[in-house]
Amino acid sequence: TQLLEQSPQFLSIQEGENLTVYCNSSSVFSSLQWYRQEPGEGPVLLVTVVTGGEVKKLKRLTFQFGDARKDSSLHITAAQPGDTGLYLCAGARGDYKLSFGAGTTVTVRA
Amino acid sequence: GAVVSQHPSRVICKSGTSVKIECRSLDFQATTMFWYRQFPKQSLMLMATSNEGSKATYEQGVEKDKFLINHASLTLSTLTVTSAHPEDSSFYICSAPTSGSYEQYFGPGTRLTVT
């Protein structure tokens, strides 16, 4: 059983559309991180959220951390083909060990 | 951001041989590093925590005698896959947190193919 439930598993959209990826858990996390991974490469850190209710923006990407620090979402506005990749959420619970969600494969069609 | 390197990026070996993968933190020191395994189109599975100067901590179900981890310095951890078999073929990735932060930085991964 995965500690972090990530949804949807796959997402295919047209360039210019918006998308949201969700990461939910029954556990409280001290921090939650979002990564993007391209085939054959390691994950690249996009953002870290640590405060309940926190919202962070990174250009067209908006990240939210739930008030109770159990869930998070990633919203991409006006998606571009360069946003294609595997998006992973990962939570830390007081130590450095990360629990990963199953990942969301995002495909943005030109 | 911090940089983590891995070597080699790809390796092919024959069944029964051993393979060593290196993970280096290039611009920071890491007392802890993590080793993950990833199957195609799946998420990362934590294999073990590498601790500088002490024994590694393995996750449940990971054979410590098969996946030997050594963390000899503050910038280098190695994973040795001993007596490799085709089912060990996978993408192996390491990561390291920077000091005082939960943020982890990942290496580019090593594709191991056992024939």
| Helix/strand structural class of chain A | mainly beta
Distance between the termini of chain A: 36 Å
Q: Cα-atom Rg of chain B, whole angstroms?
A: 13 Å
Shape of chain A: globular
The general outline of chain B is: globular
The biggest beta sheet of chain B reads: 7 strands, mixed
Largest sheet of chain A: 6 strands, mixed
Number of strands of chain B: 11
N-to-C terminal Cα separation of chain B, in Å?
37 Å
Tell me the fraction of residues in β-strands of chain A, as a range: over 45%
Keywords:
heterodimer, A: 110 residues, mainly beta, six-stranded mixed sheet, five-stranded antiparallel sheet, 11 strands, 0% helix, 54% strand, B: 115 residues, seven-stranded mixed sheet, four-stranded antiparallel sheet, globular
Give a description of the structure.
The complex is a heterodimer of chains A (110) and B (115). By secondary structure, chain A is mainly beta. Chain A has no helices and eleven strands. Chain A has strands at residues 5-7, 10-14, 19-24, 31-37, 44-49, 55-58, 61-65, 71-76, 85-92, 98-100, 104-109. At the A-B interface, strand 4, strand 5 and strand 9 of A face strand 5, strand 9 and strand 10 of B.
What does this entry show, briefly?
The complex is a heterodimer of chains A (110) and B (115). Chain A has 110 residues and is mostly beta strands.
Fold blueprint:
The complex is a heterodimer of chains A (110) and B (115).
Chain A: E1 5-7, E2 10-14, E3 19-24, E4 31-37, E5 44-49, E6 55-58, E7 61-65, E8 71-76, E9 85-92, E10 98-100, E11 104-109
Parallel strand pairs in A: 2-11
Antiparallel strand pairs in A: 1-3, 3-8, 4-5, 4-9, 6-7, 7-8, 9-10, 9-11
Chain B: E1 4-7, E2 10-13, E3 19-25, E4 32-38, E5 44-51, E6 57-58, E7 67-73, E8 76-81, E9 90-97, E10 104-106, E11 110-114
